Amino acid sequence: MVRAAVLSAVNAPLTVAEIDLPEPGPGQVRVRLAAAGVCHSDLSLSNGTLRQPVPAVLGHEGAGTVVSVGEGVGQLAAGDGVVLNWAPACGTCHFCGLGEPWLCANSGAASAVPYATLGADGSALYPGLGTAVFAEETVVAAGAVLPLPDGVPLTDAALLGCAVLTGYGAVHHSARLREGESVAVYGVGGVGLAVLQSARIAGAGQIIAVDVAPAKEELARAAGATDFVVSGEDTAKQIRRLTGGIGVDAAIECVGRADTIRTAWSSTRRGGRTTVVGIGGQDQQVTFSALELFYFGRTLAGCVYGNCDPAEDLPILAEHVRQGRLDLSGMVTDRIGLDGIPAAFEAMTAGRGGRALVVF
Question: What is the pLDDT averaged over residues 177-192?
Fold first, then answer.
């Protein structure tokens, strides 16, 4: 038996309970978690914005140590440090064939298959986003496990599994930010902090952080922001003033709200790029006039998992960590236990803090 935070139904509070994990089967790996980040996607799964069969163990941003491996797993062994990959590419679908593993049609299949049982009554449990890292241990397919590169602290490495890959990819793969360009980053949560650091690594000239909470200015500037704007009705105008009336070369939205996406678009210069990382609900509708689409010549793009190939990008991120360019621990504002996840959800909803990290 291991302890886990269980979501019994959509919109129900998470409760800590004992679950029964099977031994890893063929092609599977059992991992003892060192830490798990509390991501906004977990909140979206719990409230029904994103679909997830229940009851489930949520959590998809994690790192830990291999406990045991099933038959046919040759690249991993007990004792190996690993990062969980919540979107493992199948390698055979149409999108994988195009070299776009972040759009893999089968990456989410594991979330719909029971992986453990509840200790109290033996009922089946589903793994949130296929990984279920809000637990002391988990069992996943070998493809969902990435070897942890040397020189990265195991606990901090949890953030590499989602926030940092997403933020880094939004800057380098989607927005394609170039040295000297200006960027506005909307939302200074876990992903937003990773975007700010990645923009600094890319050599951006002006990095403008935007958030509803004035208290986040210190966090934002520590991550690389040169300017900080408190979000309001005139946010786009403020950003244009800061950029000589032109607008930023790139805007990266990490909130997932229609009004924020619209503001990010409006703060982007003619010919610039607006990248949407935040996950919004179906009721969040964004409108544009046909004339402005023509006149401004901007690019508006969605961004899934940072448009990353984790196997290729993780070693790059690890090198940034080793060289001191990427500060993982600086993104963490709260270190909690499993029972602290509901409070972390509340803080996230209220816009407080950066990343909360469950430490086992």
Answer: 97
Q: Does the model's pTM come out above 0.90?
A: yes
Q: For residues 348 and 342, what is the distance between their CA atoms, to the nearest angstrom?
A: 10
DSSP 197: H
Give the C-alpha separation, 335 to 312, whole Å: 29
DSSP SS3 for 142: helix
Beta-carbon contacts of 90 under 8 Å, excluding residues fewer than 6 positions away, are 96, 104, 105, 106, 107
How far is 169 from 352, CA to CA, in rounded Å? 24
Contact 201, 326 (CB under 8 A): yes
- pLDDT tens-digit readout, 92-151: 999 999 999 999 999 999 999 999 999 989 999 999 999 999 999 999 999 999 999 999
Tell me if 224 sits within 8 A of 248, measured CB to CB. no
